[in-house]
């Protein structure tokens, strides 16, 4: 069926251009966004983001589960924009199974990708949709209109997650540039994507991990999840853009 569509969002460019440097997302703007919540985290319990890729599976980052968390106590909030007031359209699920990539390495964050199986399927609606997963034929580098979204920190220093989903437009940056001497000096893997702005100012931050880097298809009005938020040096710094796990690279694994 259809994936990557946003029933509640009109097509005109909205607003500018927390995610740092972003803005509040409209209700239903990113209907595949999932808040992964752990009761041991203070406040809303928000730990990481995720993307709904089927009615039973959420795509996220392996490093979210590095501290051997108690997954039986965690919950997944789906279809919400504001964590403290999810609204009647939101659905809550538990984690039936966590699948972390066998080659995930905490030391260098390689293969930073994981899947969560829901305890029961979600019902899709105007507020809950699946995002499209790109296979080898999708030319990701050519996609022009890309966004990040998440409930992570809105300033590099706050470390506190945002109550309202933040979104920002970003640009894909060539990994060769990203790995150059003034940038990340070779620490970015071939299965990563780099996105943001050379001058900084807009970026994912703590709490956005596991959430999507999303690009609109160039020929049609739907979105691909091209990346999973993985790491970065600080947030929104110049020549230190966000690093994402390339979803296309792991299509067969998914």
UniProtKB/TrEMBL annotation:
**Keywords of the record:** Disulfide bond, Hydrolase, Protease, Serine protease
Please give the superkingdom of this protein's source: Eukaryota
Query: Gene encoding it?
Result: Acr_1
What's the protein called, per UniProt?
Acrosin
| Lineage, top ranks | Eukaryota, Metazoa, Chordata, Craniata, Vertebrata
Its Gene Ontology biological processes?
acrosome reaction; proteolysis
**Listed Pfam families:** Trypsin
Q: Which reaction does it catalyse?
A: Preferential cleavage: Arg-|-Xaa, Lys-|-Xaa
- Entry keyword Hydrolase: yes
Q: Which molecular function GO terms apply here?
A: serine-type endopeptidase activity
Q: Which residues form the Peptidase S1 domain?
A: 19-254
The EC number on file is 3.4.21.10
Q: Does the keyword Nuclease apply?
A: no
Listed CDD domains: Tryp_SPc
